[in-house]
């Protein structure tokens, strides 16, 4: 079941809603901007552009979210109920957060933290035990960012396609009042 069926406020200036068919390029542009920013910092954890089909499939499944401000989309993420490729089959219900990207124009205002908090709140409301993320093992800044938000390192799966670290934190528990930026 998708995490969200319609739009709802995320912050006083933004709403969060499921991405719609036809918005694949909007999502891909946000992800590409984030990938280019990471690459300029020497971090190569994402492709220059994700395959259209992967985003399309996630949109069809109701997993891709867009965060929209007064001028249009400013962030995206994907939330699913399983990630067997990295996490295997688990019996503990969780939301798996991935592909979180905030447009450079909206960076630095804590929007990423608010998105993670929102996913945690939804996880608790939907009786999920955890929020889980997978990150590049070599990105120390991102790993620290998640750790400061209360995520605990679980494993570095040896069979992953890229050097990966898995993190989880209990559902619920907002951290938005703290400055957690890397």
The proportion of residues in beta strands is 25-35%
In N-to-C order, the SSE pattern is EEHHEEHEHEHEE
Please tally the helical runs, counting DSSP H or I stretches of 4 or more residues.
5
Principal-axis shape equals globular
Using only C-alpha atoms, the radius of gyration works out to 15 Å
Note the gap between the termini: 32 Å
Strand element count: 8
Strand order of the largest sheet: 1-2-3-4-5-6-8-7
For the residues shown, what is the average pLDDT? 92
Find the structural class using helix and strand composition.
Answer: alpha+beta
Q: Unreliable segments (pLDDT under 50, ≥5 consecutive)?
A: 176-182
Helix percentage range = 25-40%
The largest sheet, given as strand count, sense and whether it forms a barrel, is: 8 strands, mixed
Keyword list:
alpha+beta, single chain, 182 residues, globular, 28% strand, eight-stranded mixed beta sheet, 8 strands, disordered C terminus
Account of the protein in words:
This protein has 182 residues and is of the alpha+beta class. The protein is 30% helix and 28% strand. The termini are far apart. Residues 176-182 have low confidence and may be disordered.
What's the structural blueprint in terms of helices and strands?
Layout: E1 8-11, E2 14-18, H1 24-40, H2 52-60, E3 64-69, E4 72-80, H3 84-87, E5 94-102, H4 111-125, E6 130-136, H5 140-148, E7 152-155, E8 164-170
Helix pairs in contact: 1-2
How would you summarize what this structure contains?
By secondary structure, the protein is of the alpha+beta class. The chain contains five helices and eight strands; from the N terminus they run ββααββαβαβαββ.
